[in-house]
Amino acid sequence: MRLMGRKGLMGQIIVGFWKIFVFLRAFVVKMVFIRDIAGIIRRHIKNERANRKTIRFKKKIIACTVKTCIGIRNKKRGTKMFDGLWTIEFRAEFDYGSGVLVINGNQALGGDFGFYYFGEIDTSSGLTGEIDVVRFSKNAVSVFGKDVDNFRLLLKNGTINEKEFQVTANLQGHEEISMQITGKKKVDLYETK
Fold this sequence. Notes:
Layout: H1 2-66, E1 84-91, E2 96-104, E3 107-111, E4 115-122, E5 127-135, E6 150-160, E7 164-171, E8 174-188
Antiparallel strand pairs: 1-2, 1-8, 2-3, 3-4, 4-5, 5-6, 6-7, 7-8
């Protein structure tokens, strides 16, 4: 009887060790599985980072080549290199003023203390286009005079690069009346975060 008690006790110890062994084996298998999955995830993240570096590198190459090639589009975003926020100064024969202008592709939007501007521009060969100017403040006076509320400017003979532009603008219907407009780029359109 005493022998069976020991076998019983010994049997329980062996079963206990067997359970611990099975548990540890399952635990090790799970850990190996988790390690393998973690390795796959790490490789995936490493590849994604490498891809991002490649994309960034390509963007730098595009940016470097665009500096010398006006009008080349960024293929990913479809924008030109001078899309952004510009400050502008304009000078007519007897008066001058300043404002802001946003260029987005061939669209131009802007304003100053009393007028807002909108229109289309073409930058493929210099700077040309048409800009409508509309008075929104009753007290504002145009550089062309007190009685001029809404008018269209015809942009001609302009030059533009990624930092600044200069253009001559004639009053539509009165081409003998003109102004000089200069602009300086302050923020790239897609630089803001």
